[in-house]
Amino acid sequence: MKQAIRMKHLPYAVAVAISVMNCNRLYAEEATVKLPEVVVDAKKDSEPVRARPLNSADMVEVLAAEGSLQFYQSGGVSALPVIRGLNDDRIKILVDGAEVTAACGNHMNSPLSYVAPATVANASVLAGITPVSQGGDSIAGTILLNSPAPAFAGNGEMLVTQGRFSSLYRSNNNAFSTALSASVANDSLSLGFTGTIDRAGSYEDGRGNKVRSTQFDRRTQTVNFAARGEDQLLIVKLTHQDVPFQGYVNQYMDLINNQSDAINIGYSRTFAWGDLDTRMYWQNVNHEMGFFSNEKTGTMPMKTKGEDMGYSIKAALPLDAIHTLRIGNEAHRQKLDDFWPAVPGSMMMGPQTYVNINNGRRDRLAVYAEVASSWSTQWSTLVGLREDVVHTSTGEVQSYGGMMNATDNAAAQAFNAGNRSRTDQNIDVTAMATYIASNTASVDFGYARKNRAPSLYERYSWGRGTMAMTMIGWFGDANGYVGDPDLKPETANTISATLNLHDAAQAQWELKLTPYYTYVQDYIGVNRIGTFNLASGVPRALLQFQNQDAQFYGVEAAFKRSLWDNARFGQGRVIGSLGWTRGERVSNGDDLYHIMPLQFKALLEQRIGAWSNAVDLQLVDSKTAVDSVRFESKTAGYTLVNLRTGYQWKKARLDLGVTNLFDKFYYLPLGGADYANWNANGGQGAIGPVAGMGRSVNVGLSVDF
Fold first, then answer.
1. Model-level pTM?
2. Which domain holds residue 345?
3. Are 445 and 390 in contact (CB under 8 A)?
């Protein structure tokens, strides 16, 4: 306990120490060790996160410009990502090279929930065909989030300091976010601190009605230490996060506590033979679900203790003027205990503690090699091979006990008598090529075979009673789920190509078109094993995870065009994207759950002097392809208009914006079931979809010092 307290307050001590120093003007040089990179069919954002207008406490809006990426509705700072119809655990998310796993049966503490936008300098989304060096145990793609590179003194300066304060207010849900960062450095050592607070009430829809259980409160503190020498860099990152509460409109329960501590140590060095990059990381999480407001009431505690740890070692070796070899070794371990304490006096939830996952373990060991080749000014290729060995296991479990839990009692006995240990060996292959046909046209194309082993919850959630099953599931559909220890790994075969057309100078216009197709063997879908009724006879499904074959296909388009460039009106451009995806079960052609309908985005942007202005348009088609097995709701199409303006001073920036300008009422296509409002209104009628946020006036201010 004393150690935890010291870690919790260490960031504040560092911040005080830095803030009392003289704030000289920073003249720093960023020291990073960059590996050569070849990415095909990977949409990467070239604009640093810090250069964007301040508009959100959530990584969703930071990543929203990526056409390949969508999000399931979840908590206010815990959205679950989707890439081309493939969601959540099927996506590898690396935060400064570290991998974090959701330690919750509802994925309330998803990997992105640990990341505040103020702590991210660069964000990249690699969709579909990704290099084996940036994949593994995932089939959809990779999200890379990186902190700012440490700053060091340069040009003979003895000591430099820098800092930034930023704040955001959003009127709709009375949201307030603030961030403070500060650092001090000489030419070889750097010390920094970042603290963020994000808090909001439940938002209102376009009709002025409250969308219950969408409030949140999150505090994050990070200390960074860096040391550099000749051709080498060491970075140590310590993070503490506290989430006192977070509502989930489409879940039966809410988050009432989530505390985590993390350490991330990275060391990189350049040798005569090439580049070496190593990393070790650890994170501990204590998580609790329950009820904290009158927007969703009840009595049932659920607790989880999770731990992630791992390392990575990778090297890049130029073999000659054409070929570069990249090799690597990774390991990751997830430990999980998931238990539900008895409720005193309850006949259903007692007298014992319900043990859902006991000493769960998921160990992964991986090796890979890939060769990047530049054959000519026109042709380049990347070919890679990777093996991941994943071992999962869990201990014996128990139900609440008692006569009212006969179904779960029998299920626990059967689970304990079975084999609770599995090992999967997965081979990934990637082959990609780029052909530059001319100074105005190029094409990227390739094939990938990717694998993902089942998660601990998919394999080892064992309860068969209705109440126990409804406590499992990260899909926001108010259904119930049970696992299957015999689940096989998913194997995805993907082909795609990107045609890129642009002007010769790549300054006036660009058009990208990307068709893709993915066939997933042993896709982890669901099989309906029963139904149950909520109040007023509303039917929901009891589902078991099951291997099925599935296919995903679609097309994405992206464009940008310079419209004007003159002294009177500054510079103007339009940027847009279009995305369409289908997901189907191969056996019967049924639609899969939460597939985003056709959508189009366009941004008209003007920059003139210190001003930047933009009009943002989003059109979403009606969602009629729904998963009937899960009772998924259809949603109507809608159009949203957002406005924003900003003014940049030398060391400060002010942003003003209006989202959903016309206060449009609409339903979120990936929002799930609006359980919180249905329940608060007496459980009358069917459970409808979740409504989106109405109009909000947003104000953001950032100051550098």
1. 0.91
2. 2-704
3. no
